[in-house]
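Comment thread on ticket #2218

A.B. wrote:
> Attaching the input chain for the structure job we discussed in standup.
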Amino acid sequence: MPVKIRLQRHGKKGKPFYWVVAADSRAKRDGKFLEKLGTYSPTSNPAQIDLNVEASVKWLQNGAQPTETAKRILSYKGALMKHHLQGGVAKGALTQEQADAKFATWLEEKAGKVTNKVEGLAKAKADAKAKALQAEKEVNEKRKAAAAAVETVEEVAEETALEETVAEAVEAVEAPAEETAEENKEAEA
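C.D. wrote:
> Ran it. Output below, let me know if you need it in another format.
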């Protein structure tokens, strides 16, 4: 029976979630499987992968062939590396202790890379948030300046209208006074 290590899709439409399984290659994609090896959630950044490395290595040693995506996942989590080291132990090139030490150092290096990536993403997110906040402050300052300019224009317009009203009132008062003064001059004459 040819066995494949492949992904079995779960989750909602648009929000995939996968199980990494060892299944008969003739079985349906989401059908019967022999063993669940782990989970894979590609929607987060970085992707969340939970894998049983020991069980994966056991299936690889028994001849299971991983699909392309499953192969990348197994490589990312170190199952292929451990399988390779176990081959060296079987041939007598390494002892089990040496293989375990090499695998442990590889895991530490990988954990450091993942931590750096997570920190880099968090920093990029914080920088983007700070940049957006700064842009928002600039827009608010421009709005305040524009509002102040409009208020100044309105005050000037009100003062001009007030001065015009006063001038009209003065003219209205002065016109009858001038007429009365002219009438008085005519009456005296």
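A.B. wrote:
> Thanks. Noting for the ticket: The longest strand covers residues 3-12.
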